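Q: Please design a sequence for this.
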């Protein structure tokens, strides 16, 4: 039981803006998340907020620690602060995963922006499609680069960049994507995520840091001269110190107290294709290797070849469909009939990963008109394609399909042994193969528990599952209104509760979490190691309680397939161990698509076994060179903190987060119970039913029904502060005008003991609450100041006032203000305000000092670079003088003297310009410092919330 005074106090406490370095700042984001956060994630998010002068941060936790969750916390907090221009740039195959993580775990609205949605927005009259109202914008690297001017034009509050190691070579002018994005995002606050910020050279770290803040270091030349030698202990320590404020890294071994890890166990099932299958493979493979092909657009030859090879390896049913499509298109081309859709679009209906692969696949070519020779070539190709298709259609069973049944028997036995559920997810890259596997399994012992998962899910069972799911969850927040999102949830729920086998295309690898399943079958194995890791990560992730079995197939007749598996298994370490692929290995490739291109090139160019062997040996050797052990050790020394130091910090974070979370949720429910009294029925401390919309919130879009706090059953509306009902409740309490009144605080019925208040039992007095807002450094923070006094004139401490407001109370009657008591409290409040101003000023001084030190380092770096140029000319002059001395002929001596004079003139000019350049650098530094100083001014506003008379009994 609380009063209107309690309610107003709680409403302001719940919505107050906290200091940037306060662990309380994230309380709302943590409370509103649908995930049990680990302390290292809270720690990383707070690091990103550490200074309001910061241009961003690099979060470099090891693989598997949830950098998406860390970024989600930062995004959720920005969202709560009404800073809602937020952009997420990720590899194209991770866009859906980001959408799902942010929408499901942080309940944030998101919009994936790609060519189709961008063009539709333009057609609808929105000529700034990146300016999305009330949604986090998610796009791919390639799309952000292609629309760089649009990206640059938006005043983003935050830009999150996933897999940011793709930007680490931004210091090289040849890296077009990275430099384009750097220019487009200059001056924006950025959060970069990567497990491998440093792979081959310290210059990569320079690249990433300069992408965030161009004033963190001087130019690349001065960085190379000062820091490129890790053996120089002094410069190494200086570099480590300068990175501390911008790079944050936590290791898996440091968080074992909070996160239990399970292992991956590989199973390999070998199979031998029948003669017909093998013949088809070689016929189609040789066809794809022809120098001139009419069937494939020259601008997409390598991409389409990749797709056809993947379908060929998937099943005869997959390649048969593709061959028929291509021959039909060639006939239409021959007859000059219009072709309604590009080949890419047709193939993507079966090979669902095509859109995302194409997004990062660049080829340039121009299609020309048909010549007579072209027509004859087309006719010959049609005959070949029809023959291939006829052979493919005649094959009714695939050896790999038969091997699947054997593999499932072995794998399920292993799962039973490990204590896991007998559930398996089977991944294929083809919709037609998916349908074939459904037929194969339908007549097996596993036939009754099969569910399909693909990009459309229009099959009868999926529609039935969806309809039942919608009916069951009607009225809850589980239903989003998006058929695609709800269908995915329905199928995953069915697989968890009723199904035994899910057969998924690549669409199933994106954004769904299957911790309840511990058996993964790669029926088709992608060549992109990042895509393989993404698949396995659907099951082998935080929350998985059992060791995960990973099944792969090896074609005994195909040496190239065997070598791909060997590479993914032994070099990339994808299929076994506690964590799967290591940082070093996955980080060795900037883009999985680029690696996929290398593999595709081997298949396309090598015909003989010895050629295949040599090509894979070269690739494996190059990969070994890229995984630099010495650089890995350098990264450890440079970016990693001592385990004990980290563990102690995480322990404190864990304790703080739990305190703030418990208090936050209690306050929210106490306030809600008070404001909805007589309207809602409360079942316990975390749930209630709202049968009708409150009259005072008729204009708000508030749904009725069951409400629960986050991380409960999720069969209800998820109640949180930024839910429309939560916002309405808070605003009602805040807006309520309160005349001075007496409140009886009932200590007798309080369940605990508050020692600090016991001296005041039986006493009465006055209490004043004020809101103090301090604006500085482009941020605002709020302080609720409570001051109390007894009728005997004894002041209550701040802690005593805080604890008094935690006790339930009864509103008795309005009273006439005691001006003497209130005047005394006004003086106390002024003292509190002065103290707060002092704390803020001291904290700002620390921020300012850190920023000034950074700018000093930047200026010194540039000056060192200028001085280095003069030293280099001095060295050249000495060499020229030695050369002139040893010259044998007069002509050589004269030429030497001429060179010396030219060099001396250049040096003298450099010396004169050095001082001018140094002055320019100092001027730039002073201007930057002046900009910061202008932000340091504190703007303070104080307003009275209420004054009340209290009585404690």
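A: Design:
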């Amino acid at each position: 039981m609380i009063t209107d005074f309690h309610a107003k106090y709680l409403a302001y406490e719940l919505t107050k803006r906290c200091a940037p370095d306060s662990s309380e700042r994230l309380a709302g984001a943590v409370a509103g998340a649908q995930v049990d956060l680990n302390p290292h994630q809270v720690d990383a998010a707070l690091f990103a907020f550490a200074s309001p002068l910061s241009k961003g941060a690099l979060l470099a936790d090891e693989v598997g620690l949830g950098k998406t969750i860390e970024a989600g916390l930062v995004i959720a907090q920005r969202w709560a602060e009404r800073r809602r221009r937020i952009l997420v740039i990720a590899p194209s195959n991770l866009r859906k995963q980001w959408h799902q993580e942010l929408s499901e775990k942080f309940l944030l609205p998101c919009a994936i922006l790609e060519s189709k949605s961008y063009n539709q927005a333009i057609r609808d009259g929105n000529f700034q499609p990146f300016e999305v109202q009330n949604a986090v914008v998610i796009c791919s690297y390639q799309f952000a680069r292609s629309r760089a001017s649009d990206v640059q034009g938006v005043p983003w509050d935050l830009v999150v960049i996933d897999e940011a190691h793709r930007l680490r070579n931004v210091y090289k002018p040849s890296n077009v994507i990275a430099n384009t994005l750097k220019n487009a995002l200059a001056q924006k606050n950025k959060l970069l995520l990567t497990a491998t910020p440093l792979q081959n050279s310290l210059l990569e770290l320079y690249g990433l840091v300069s992408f965030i803040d161009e004033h963190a270091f001087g130019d690349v030349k001065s960085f190379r001269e000062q820091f490129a030698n890790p053996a120089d202990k002094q410069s190494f320590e200086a570099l480590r110190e300068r990175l501390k404020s911008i790079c944050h890294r936590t290791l898996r071994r440091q968080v074992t107290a909070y996160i239990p890890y399970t292992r991956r166990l590989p199973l390999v099932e070998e199979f031998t294709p029948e003669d017909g299958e093998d013949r088809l493979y070689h016929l189609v493979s040789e066809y794809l290797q022809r120098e001139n092909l009419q069937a494939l657009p020259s601008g997409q030859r390598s991409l389409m070849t990749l797709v056809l090879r993947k379908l060929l390896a998937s099943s005869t049913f997959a390649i048969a469909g593709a061959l028929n499509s291509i021959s039909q298109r060639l006939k239409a081309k021959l007859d000059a009939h219009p072709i309604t859709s590009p080949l890419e679009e047709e193939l993507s209906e079966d090979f669902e990963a095509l859109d995302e692969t194409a997004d990062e696949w660049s080829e340039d070519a121009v299609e020309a008109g048909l010549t007579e020779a072209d027509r004859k070539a087309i006719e010959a190709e049609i005959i070949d394609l029809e023959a291939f298709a006829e052979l493919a259609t005649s094959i009714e069973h695939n050896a790999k399909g038969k091997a699947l049944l054997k593999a499932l028997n072995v794998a399920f036995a292993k799962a039973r042994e490990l204590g896991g559920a007998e559930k398996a997810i089977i991944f294929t890259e083809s919709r037609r193969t998916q349908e074939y596997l459904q037929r194969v399994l339908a007549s097996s012992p596993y036939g009754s528990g099969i569910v399909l998962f693909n990009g459309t899910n229009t099959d009868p069972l999926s529609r039935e599952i969806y309809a039942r799911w919608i009916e069951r969850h009607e009225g809850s927040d589980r239903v989003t209104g998006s058929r695609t999102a709800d269908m995915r949830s329905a199928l995953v729920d069915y697989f968890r509760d009723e199904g035994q086998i899910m057969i998924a295309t690549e669409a199933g690898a994106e954004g769904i979490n299957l911790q309840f399943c511990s058996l993964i079958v790669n029926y088709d194995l992608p060549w992109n190691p990042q895509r393989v890791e993404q698949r396995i990560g659907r099951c082998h992730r935080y929350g998985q309680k059992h060791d995960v079995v990973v099944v792969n197939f090896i074609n005994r007749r195909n040496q190239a397939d065997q070598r791909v598996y060997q590479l993914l298994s032994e070099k990339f370490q994808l299929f076994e161990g506690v964590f799967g692929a290591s940082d070093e290995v996955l980080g060795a490739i900037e883009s999985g698509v680029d690696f996929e291109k290398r593999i595709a090139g081997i298949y396309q160019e090598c015909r003989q076994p010895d050629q295949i062997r040599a090509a894979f040996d070269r690739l494996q050797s190059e990969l070994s060179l890229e995984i630099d052990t010495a650089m890995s050790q350098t990264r450890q020394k440079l970016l990693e903190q001592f385990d004990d130091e980290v563990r102690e910090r995480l322990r404190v974070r864990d304790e703080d987060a739990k305190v703030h979370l418990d208090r936050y949720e209690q306050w929210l429910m106490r306030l809600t119970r008070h404001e909805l009294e007589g309207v809602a029925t409360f079942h316990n401390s975390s749930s209630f039913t709202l049968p009708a919309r409150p009259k005072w919130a008729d204009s708000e879009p508030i749904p009725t029904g069951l409400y629960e706090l986050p991380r409960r059953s999720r069969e209800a509306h998820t109640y949180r502060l930024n839910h429309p009902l939560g916002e309405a409740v808070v605003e009602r309490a805040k807006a309520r005008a309160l005349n001075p009144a007496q409140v009886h605080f009932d200590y007798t019925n309080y369940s605990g003991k508050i020692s600090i208040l016991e001296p005041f039992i039986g006493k009465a007095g006055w209490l004043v609450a004020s809101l103090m807002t301090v604006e500085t450094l482009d941020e605002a923070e709020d302080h609720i100041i409570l001051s109390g006094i007894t009728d005997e004139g004894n002041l209550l401490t701040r802690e005593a006032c805080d604890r008094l407001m935690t006790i339930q109370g009864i509103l008795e009657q309005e009273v006439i203000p005691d001006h003497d008591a209130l005047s005394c409290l006004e003086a106390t409040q002024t003292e509190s305000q002065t103290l707060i101003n002092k704390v803020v000023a001291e904290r700002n001084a620390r921020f300012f000092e850190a920023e000034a030190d950074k700018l000093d380092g930047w200026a010194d770096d540039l000056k060192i670079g200028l001085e280095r140029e003069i030293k280099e000319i001095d060295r050249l002059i000495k060499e020229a003088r030695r050369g002139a001395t040893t010259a044998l002929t007069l002509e050589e001596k004269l030429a030497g003297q001429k060179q010396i004079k030219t060099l001396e003139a250049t040096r003298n000019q450099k010396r004169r310009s050095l001082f001018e350049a140094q002055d320019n650098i100092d001027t730039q530094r002073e201007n930057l410092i002046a900009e910061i100083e202008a932000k340091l001014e504190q703007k303070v506003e104080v307003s009275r919330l209420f004054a009340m008379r209290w009585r404690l009994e």
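Q: Thanks. Anything notable?
A: The chain has a mean pLDDT of 87. The chain has 33 helices and 23 strands.
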